[in-house]
Amino acid sequence: MLDNSQPVLYQNVVHTNGIGMSLSNNSYPIMSPAYSISETNNLAGYNHFYNNSGHEIYIFNTENAKNNLLMNDGYNIIEDNVNSEYYLIYIENQGWTPSEVIECKNNYWGVIPNPGDKLYPFEYFNYIPFLYTIPAPPSNCQITTVNDDNSYMPQQTLILGNALTSGINGNYVNAANYSQQLTSLGGSKAFQKVGSRLYYTNKYLDGSGISSLPAYYENLINANSNDTLLKKYFRGLKIESNVINTELHSALVSLDSIISSPSNPYELMYANIDKLRILSLLDSSSGGDNYGVGNNNIPLPEIFNLLKSDLSNVSGFSKISSNNKISSKKQSATKTVNTSKYDFLLKRIPTDINVLKNKSLEQIKEIIKDKMMYNVLINNYVPNVPPNRNEEYKTKEKSDVENNLPKVYSLSQNYPNPFNPTTTIRYALPKDNMVTIKIFDVTSREIKTIVNDVKKAGYYSITFSVSDLSSGIYFYRIKAGNFIQTKMMVYIK
After folding, report:
1. Which residues in the chain are classed under CATH 2.60.40.1930?
2. How far apart are the C-alpha atoms of 380 and 488, rounded to whole Å?
3. What is the structure's pLDDT at 325?
4. CATH of 155-378, one of 3.90.25, 3.40.50, 1.25.40, 1.20.120
5. DSSP per residue over 289-348, as a string?
6. Domain 403-491: CATH architecture, name and number where available
7. pTM attached to this predicted model
8. How many whole angstroms from its chain centre is CA 367?
């Protein structure tokens, strides 16, 4: 699953998963070679997705976060000879906002007369011409350079190719300059977003000029004031830039403005998780009633304002959700819940700043975690996945009990969730495999390995017991052969 990421994918083989690849929250994987005017650098593309039990690639767009595949002339193989009822690429748009068009010419879609029949909705794909034979990638995943006349290609494609080639060769200054050009060209939002993130990455890798990043993204925000999607994307990069410059106060204030008036539950969810990550960077080295890193002090009154500012707005969120018209083909990301069962979390949140003054930094962190978990839980955030196969899995598991073997890999949502102090995680293996299940916190720090063993095909459950962790959002990830899946869980003390 890709979430707010932009990986360069080269010769990956993905098969026999529930879903081949899932994109959400502004993900833009690069899946085509780096083209310059006279050269083709094979450093991306030639990926192979096949015979996954759901869609080969699933894209979930919200009103505030789009996703796209940069795979034009990518020589990727995306096929499915087993599950005819699922699509090769499936786009789900929350609400009625249009998707970005996916430019995907010169890829191989399997032995089918018209790939458009397996791309949904087909009007969002430019897939002609397509390959009729399986492309042969460079051997051993080697990065190769071929002399080619690519002068006919669009300018954005050539600038992106120069940025990628410079970056892979360690010339981060040139890579940043090309990325800046790509962002300023306008036109395709996909290239603008990719360029702006590559600029951030190369500035960070070079180590010079990172102090200028917040101002750079602020200028992009102002220059695109009439484009809500681009503004929000650049705002996210500005917040990241604040963090790497240890401007934690500015980052928290920006996130708080999002949490105070979210436009959908996903925006609220990600802002809370980002806030929790920043919280983990705070320390009390500043002394007195200030908290921060180095000279970046956050006074206690500011922390108190950040803590309480969005409490009055959360209860009205169901009104936003109810205005979203979801067709029968789509699943709502939220549903109305009885919030009173989470009132015990609210009782932990002081309404008087004098109470905070008597708390240690670690105690304040726990209070803010309680607040963020309350925000998440009362909106009953449920990650939206493609026509998901849970019911089908249940049906199969019931019938397969007689044979003692599941037909597909699966990882179930832990139960209960939220939990304290134990929860059960179930998974299924269609064949013998080395299995690992690891627990991570919101900063991607590995907390614990709860399974690390060769398992025979079958159904399994494991109880995860918490004794020394603080309340918060955690993730558990299974890896069994080529099957990798991650789910979220919430621990409340």
Report:
1. 403-491
2. 13
3. 30
4. 1.25.40
5. TEEEETTEEEEHHHHHHHHHTTHHHHTTHHHHHHT----TTS--S-----GGGGHHHHTT
6. Sandwich (2.60)
7. 0.71
8. 26
